[in-house]
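User: Once you have settled down, look closely at the record that follows, taking as long as you need, and be ready to discuss the fold:
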Amino acid sequence: EEQASFLADSSPDAYEKQVDRMLASPRYGERWAALWLDLARYADSKGYEADRERPGMWPYRDWVIQAFNRNVAYDKFVVTQLAGDLLPDATFEDQIATSFHRQTPNNDEGGTDDEEFRLIAAMDRSATTWSVLNGLTINCVQCHSHPYDPIRHVEYYKSLAFFNTSRDADLPEDTPVLRVPKDKKRYERAWSLQQEIAKLSHATVNLGRQLESQAKWMPLPISTASANEALALEWEAVNSERELAVLDKDKLSPKEKKDQRKYLLSTITEDRKRSRSQGANASIPFQVQDGEMRAAANTPGKSVYELVATADVQTITALRIEVLPATGEAARHNPEDGFIVDQVEAWVMQPNGHQDKIRFRYFVPDSEDDLKSAIARAIRFGPTTELAGGFAANPNLFRAHWIIGLPDSPMKLTRGSRIKMRVTQTQNVNDKPAHVRRARLSASSDWCWSELIRDQEYRSNLTRLSTLTRQLKKIPSVETPVMAEQPDYEKRETMEFERGNFLTKIGPALTPDVPGLFPRLPANAPRNRLTLAKWFFSPEQPLTARTAVNRYWEQLFGTGMVETLENFGSMGETPTHPELLDWLALHFEHDLHWDM
């Protein structure tokens, strides 16, 4: 029918009309999006052994199709995907576009090293960026300097540094994610809610971190430390929402136990005496060194720690517990497995033996992830302060993590009083025990903490966060993995890996940079993904336009002028028509202004 219509059209512009008709068709975007989605390694599953589904990837696919149909210029098309989250006044769709670099595989298999696979994803982003945009085989430089092109080993890691400070961390939940409504009419509302949540979270956490850094802290030296697995099971039973499967001895298949809480509680009650007689406390080796608790590496992942500390203070307005890397400075080079704390409780132990439980009004978290988790627990279980006392380094522990408990009112302590802190852990990190191995306690008497409790704006922000989160969850949505930078206080350092081994980092921390064979980055620009993305389209950049027009030439004529589309280096094929390639590249950049 289309052919007959074309043959029947005798007008001099019949051919042009057919071209215009095809360009205006929605199928045009689908045709060219297929090429780009292959370059973006698009998939709706995570890859590796389990290859679990990623049901929220389609918004990125749709964004690419629509970008071709809207004829978005190539420079904007690429910059938005590499760094849309860093654009001033970034839009909802700018955030979706950054899923370009969240297509990397994610390994959920239990027992794998989260840091290893996080770095594999970061390296893939660097290699894909250079290969797709410049036809550069920078992945050859991971273990040694490039054998054929002038790229040094250390330059590979300077390039990796652009992609090594994103918040994703090989987690099953694919954090960070953008909640994308299934109904596009609700995009604006969902984006508005997520923007306000992010703004309030940032302000709340920054205020807490500012007060924490300015406050005067008095060490509470830990005198004894113990742990009890039975108490952890009891806590899990009371607070669990999961169903339990119990194996019947006479049947091969398990049957569901509908009320896990009752079952676990009865099991714990029957077994409590035996568990304790086996020495649940004594079986876990602890050391108290310099007032810190240090646990052995074989500490069970599910435990309730009880830390007793001397309290040579008269007034306490805030209690802080810090979890530190067991290896201290070495964690910069080789981060340790993380931890997850479900709950923090505390008591004042009077000299006469009486224990008074401390009623906390608020817990001040040290990160936005911890604040988000606290809000989620409050929504699920109700606004109980104790459940807001969880915090984590998931999946890895690079630095000290802390949480601060603020009592209802300043606590007056008598001479000889002690503080008992109970820390509950029931969750593993990537199916491995995620225990606290080193911790310390401290207290503050500063009145800023009492003022924070009375601060109506702070209280209003917490309430508002909970309300907005509930409203957002009511909008039917999918969760699309997106790029987001770590806050400054969590920024990872990038170092050179000896022979490409992530466990053997050498030299000082590296500043993000491009290989020395290329024009330099703008002198005063921040060294981040946005600066890198814009640099690819600077007039001095020699390869971006050439690589793009060569790829389109290959799609139209079957073979590129450079046959090795993704290798413009010395081991790639030389151009069959170098002058034509140069002319097309300059025409694409300067005359067409990257119009695809």
Residues 242-246, 253-258, 260-283 have pLDDT under 50 and may be disordered. The chain has 17 helices and 22 strands.
